[in-house]
Specification:
The complex is a heterodimer of chains A (about 280) and B (about 500). Chain A is mainly alpha-helical and about 280 residues long. Chain A has one domain. Chain B contains 6 helices and 25 strands. In chain B, a hairpin with a 2-residue loop joins β19 and β20. Chain B folds into 4 domains: about 35 residues; about 210 residues, no CATH class; about 170 residues, Distorted Sandwich (Coagulation Factor XIII, Chain A, domain 1); about 35 residues. Chain B is flat. The chains are: A mainly alpha (about 280), B alpha+beta (about 500). At the A-B interface, α2, β1, α5, α7 and α8 of A face α1, β14, β15, β16 and β25 of B.
Chain lengths: ~280, ~500
C-alpha cells in the first residue's frame, strides 16, 4: 500500500475517532457543568472588581476581563486535558483500545483523533466564553479591549499544549487510576508551586517567617524557573503580561513555544503508544 | 508508572521534610534574635571586611548602599554616573532585618588601587578612585542631582560650605532683626505710634528662604558611567594583587520603557489616591464621579535589578517581572500664578509642591479628551485646595484654588495640582492624552477612562444562562434522539419477529 493511501486511511480513521469523541463530549452533561462553574468563577471575580469600583470610585488596571478569563480558560483546559487522560486510559483498561487496533486504527490515527476531538471542543468553548464575556461586558458596561482577543488567541495555544500533555500522560499510563494520579499530581504541583512561590516571595525579610522558609523560597524559585519554560499556565500568564506590556515579540515567542511543545507531546504520544502498546 | 508516581511523592515529602528541618534551625535563630535585641547584651560580632560602598543613581536621587562579601552582584543604572567606593570596614549580622550592617563610624578605610572592569573576560576599563561630591542645588528630591569629581568636588563643596555659612549668617541676622523689631514694636505700641496693621507688616523682617542646597562631604570613590551590560569587577591594590572579596559581577541596566503615570485622585477619597503606571491602561470608574489626574514621568525597569540596586541584600529570587518607578513630577503649564511671599502681590504664603518636572524644556501640556471619537475642550492643569467641612461630621470639599482663595483660604498653598475630569452619567468612555502646546501628544500618556455601569451584581449571573441552556438543549437532544433510536430499534425488532 502506498504512503498516500496509508495516510488517507489514517486521516479517515482519525476523523472517525474525532467525530465519536467529539459527540461524546458535547452531548454529555459534564462539559456544561464544568463550563457553567468556570464562568461562575469568572463572574465572581468580575463582580468583586465591580463592587470595588462601585465603592472606591475607580480601579486602574490593564484589562478587567484578563484575570477572570485566565481562570475560566485554565479550569476548562484542565478539564479537557483530564477528560483526554480518562478517555484514553479507560479504553486501554477496558480493552477497547486493543480491539480498535485490530481494525484500521493505528497509533497515529488514534492519538490524532483523540487529541483533535478535545481541541475542537476547546475551540468551541472559547467561542462560547467570548459570547459570555460579551454579555458580561454589556451588563457591566465594561468595554472589551483589543488585547482581550489576543489573550484568547494565546489561550488557544496554551490550552492545546495542556491537552497534548494529557494525551501523552494517558498513552504512557497503565490504568485509569495511575493516569489520573499522575495528571492530577502534575497539574496540582505546577499550580501549587507557582502559588507557593508567589506567596513565599512576598514574605518580608523582617518577618518572623523569613528565615524558616528561606531555603524553601530559593528552592521553589528555581523550580519556578524550570516551570516557566515548561508549564502552559506560566506561558499563559507570561504571554498575557508581556502582551499587555506591548512586548509582542515575547507574546509571539510564547505562542511559538506552546505550539512546539504541543507538537512534541503529540509526537511523543504517538511514539509512546507504539512503545507502550495497547494492552493493559 | 508506579515508580514515577513514587518519585513525585518522594520529592514532595523531601520538600516538606526540608521545610521542617529549616523550621527547627530557624527556631534556634530566633533565640539568637532575642539575645541580640537592642537594650539587651550586644552580642553582634563585628569583623573587618572589604566592602563596596555604592552611591547608585535610582532615576531620582543617589542612594547610598553597601555590598558585603555575601552579595556577589552589583546593579547600576546605565549611562549615569554611579560611584563605587572600595572600603575596609566592620560588618556585623543584624538578625532583626536579616542582613549585614556596616559600622562605618568605627572603621572606614579607603582601599588604594585601581578598579578593573571586565566585559566577557576582557579588561575594558581601569579606574582609580578620585574625590567626589554629590549635590542637590534645589534640594534632595526637589531637583536634579549633580556629581562633581576631582578638583571640582573640592571647589563645589567649598561653595556649598560658603552658601551654608551665608545662610547661617542670614538666619542669625533675621533673628537679630526680629528681636529688634519686637522690641521696637513693643515700644511703639506702648507709645501709641502704631496706627494701623500695615505699620506692623511693612516693617517686619523677612525670614530667609529655606536652605535647600544639599551636599555630601568630599569622599573618595570610583566614578563609573557604563553602557548596559554584564561586567565583572575587581580591585587591584598598589602591590598589584587582587583585593580579597573584591571580585563581583556588575550588572548595568537601563529602563525598558518610559511613560507618563498618573496619580488618580477620586473626589470622594482624595487622601487615598490610586496610581496608574502602565501606558494605555484602563481606568475603570463609577459614573457621576470627578477624578483628578496628576501626571508624573516614569521609567520601567527589570524588577529584580531595580530591587537589588536599592537593596543589595534583598532575597535573590528569580523574578521576570517589571517595575514602574516614578521619577519626575509634572509642572504647571503656565508661569505660576502663586507667588512666594516676597512678591508684591502676595496671595499665598507657601510654595507649590516641589520637585523636578517633565516639561522643564518649556513645553506646556494640556489634557486632550476624546469622547466617542469627538475631541473635547482641552483640560488645563490646575491647583486645588481641600476644605474640611466644619463641625464634627467627617467630610471635605475640593475647590479650585482661586475659589478657595475667594472663600478666605489664604494662609496655605494648594493641596494638589491636577487635571480635573468630570465623569457624567451620560459618558460612555473617554480617551485622555497629554498634548503639548506644540500639538504633539506626549508618548505613553494615554489612558482610557471606562465608565462602569452601576448594575446590580446579581445581573452578571445572567450570563450563566447561556451554558446552562446550551447544556440542557444538547443533553436533551441526545436523550431524545436516543429514545427515538431505541424506539425505532424496538419497532424494527418487533416487525422482524
Amino acid at each position: 500500500m502506498s504512503d498516500t493511501s496509508t495516510m488517507y486511511k489514517q486521516i479517515q480513521t482519525a476523523l472517525t475517532i474525532h467525530r465519536r469523541d467529539f459527540r461524546i463530549a458535547i452531548f454529555g452533561p459534564v462539559l456544561y457543568i464544568v463550563t457553567t462553574i468556570s464562568i461562575a468563577i469568572g463572574i465572581v471575580i468580575i463582580r468583586n472588581y465591580l463592587n470595588y469600583i462601585e465603592s472606591n470610585g475607580l480601579y486602574p488596571m490593564p484589562d478587567l476581563f484578563s484575570f477572570p478569563f485566565r481562570w475560566v480558560i485554565i479550569l476548562t483546559s484542565v478539564y479537557l486535558a483530564f477528560s483526554a487522560v480518562v478517555a484514553i486510559a479507560r479504553e486501554r483498561e477496558s480493552g477497547a483500545m486493543e480491539l480498535l487496533f485490530y481494525g484500521p486504527v493505528d497509533n497515529v490515527s488514534y492519538v490524532l483523533g483523540k487529541y483533535s476531538a478535545q481541541l475542537t471542543v476547546y475551540c468551541l468553548l472559547i467561542i462560547l466564553y467570548l459570547i459570555c464575556f460579551f454579555i458580561l461586558s454589556n451588563i457591566a458596561g465594561v468595554q472589551i479591549p483589543a488585547n482581550f482577543y489576543m489573550m484568547m488567541l494565546l489561550s488557544l495555544f496554551t490550552g492545546a499544549y495542556l491537552i497534548s500533555v494529557g494525551v501523552f500522560v494517558s498513552t504512557m499510563s497503565k490504568s485509569v487510576r495511575s493516569a489520573t494520579l499522575v495528571f492530577i499530581t502534575l497539574i496540582a504541583s505546577t499550580l501549587l508551586i507557582q502559588a507557593s512561590q508567589a506567596w513565599l516571595s512576598n514574605i518580608a525579610p523582617e518577618s518572623d517567617y523569613y528565615n524558616p522558609v528561606l531555603l524553601l523560597q530559593q528552592l521553589l524559585g528555581w523550580i519556578q524557573v524550570v516551570l516557566t519554560w515548561l508549564s502552559p499556565f506560566s506561558y499563559l500568564n507570561y504571554g498575557v503580561n508581556e502582551m499587555l506590556r506591548g512586548n509582542m515579540t515575547a507574546f509571539l515567542r510564547v505562542i511559538g513555544l506552546s505550539f512546539v511543545f504541543c507538537i512534541t507531546f503529540i509526537f511523543s504520544s504517538i511514539i509512546g503508544l507504539k512503545i507502550r502498546g495497547v494492552r493493559q | 508508572m508506579r515508580k514515577f508516581i513514587a518519585a513525585i511523592l518522594l520529592s514532595w515529602l523531601g520538600l516538606m521534610s526540608m521545610d521542617t528541618d529549616v523550621r527547627i534551625v530557624a527556631a534556634d535563630n530566633h533565640d539568637d534574635d532575642k539575645r541580640d535585641l537592642p537594650g539587651l547584651v550586644d552580642k553582634t560580632e563585628k569583623r573587618e571586611e572589604f566592602v563596596y560602598g555604592v552611591n547608585a543613581y535610582n532615576g531620582t536621587l543617589y542612594q547610598g548602599v553597601f555590598h558585603p562579601p555575601s552579595v556577589d552582584t552589583i546593579y547600576l543604572l546605565a549611562d549615569t554616573i554611579n560611584i563605587i567606593s572600595p572600603r575596609k570596614t566592620l560588618i556585623y549580622y543584624w538578625a532583626v532585618t536579616n542582613e549585614y550592617k556596616a559600622d562605618f563610624d568605627s572603621m572606614n578605610e579607603d582601599i588604594p588601587g585601581t578598579l578593573e572592569i571586565k566585559l566577557k573576560g576582557e579588561l575594558v576599563l581601569t579606574v582609580e578612585p578620585t574625590d567626589y561630591v554629590i549635590q542637590y542645588p534645589e534640594g534632595i528630591t526637589r531637583g536634579a542631582a549633580e556629581v562633581y569629581l576631582g578638583g571640582a568636588a573640592q571647589r563645589k563643596y567649598g561653595e556649598w560650605e560658603e552658601a551654608l555659612r551665608m545662610y547661617r549668617l542670614d538666619v542669625s541676622e533675621y533673628y537679630e532683626a526680629s528681636r529688634n523689631w519686637r522690641t521696637d514694636l513693643t515700644e511703639r505700641v506702648q507709645s501709641g505710634k502704631v496706627t494701623s496693621e500695615d505699620d506692623v507688616l511693612v516693617s517686619q523682617p523677612m525670614r530667609p528662604a529655606d536652605f535647600l542646597y544639599s551636599s555630601t562631604k568630599v569622599f573618595r570613590g570610583v566614578p563609573l558611567n557604563l553602557p548596559p551590560g554584564e561586567y565583572d569587577i575587581q580591585m587591584r591594590n598598589d602591590a598589584g594583587k587582587i583585593v580579597a572579596d573584591s571580585v563581583k559581577k556588575l550588572v548595568v541596566f537601563q529602563s525598558d520603557r518610559v511613560g507618563v503615570g498618573y496619580t488618580v485622585i477620586p473626589e470622594d477619597k482624595w487622601t487615598t489616591p490610586e496610581q496608574t503606571y502602565n501606558p494605555d491602561e484602563m481606568l475603570y470608574v463609577r459614573s457621576d464621579n470627578t477624578l483628578y489626574l496628576d501626571p508624573f514621568f516614569e521609567s520601567e525597569y527589570n524588577e529584580q535589578y531595580f530591587t537589588h540596586l536599592e537593596a543589595p541584600q534583598a532575597p535573590n529570587f528569580v523574578n521576570f517581572d517589571w517595575k514602574w518607578v516614578k521619577e519626575e513630577n509634572f509642572k504647571i503649564s503656565d508661569s505660576s500664578r502663586w507667588r512666594r511671599s516676597e512678591d508684591a502681590d502676595v496671595t499665598f504664603i507657601g510654595e507649590r509642591r516641589p520637585g523636578p518636572h517633565i516639561n522643564d524644556e518649556g513645553i506646556a501640556y494640556d489634557m486632550q479628551v476624546v469622547e466617542r471619537d469627538m475631541l473635547q475642550n482641552p483640560i488645563e492643569f490646575e491647583d486645588y485646595m481641600v476644605r474640611q467641612n466644619p463641625g464634627k461630621a467627617l467630610g471635605y470639599e475640593i475647590l479650585e484654588a482661586m475659589e478657595g482663595l475667594s472663600q478666605g483660604m489664604r494662609d496655605r498653598s494648594p493641596d494638589f495640582s491636577a487635571f480635573q475630569i468630570i465623569v457624567r452619567r451620560s459618558i460612555q468612555d473617554l480617551e485622555v492624552n497629554l498634548q503639548g502646546d506644540d500639538g504633539a501628544i506626549l508618548s505613553g500618556s494615554g489612558r482610557t477612562v471606562d465608565v462602569v455601569r452601576g448594575s446590580g451584581s446579581t445581573d452578571l449571573f445572567l450570563a450563566l444562562i447561556l451554558p446552562i441552556v446550551l447544556g440542557i438543549v444538547m443533553v436533551g437532544y441526545r436523550r431524545y434522539s436516543l429514545k427515538i433510536h431505541r424506539e425505532k430499534l424496538a419497532s424494527a425488532s418487533i416487525e422482524n419477529s
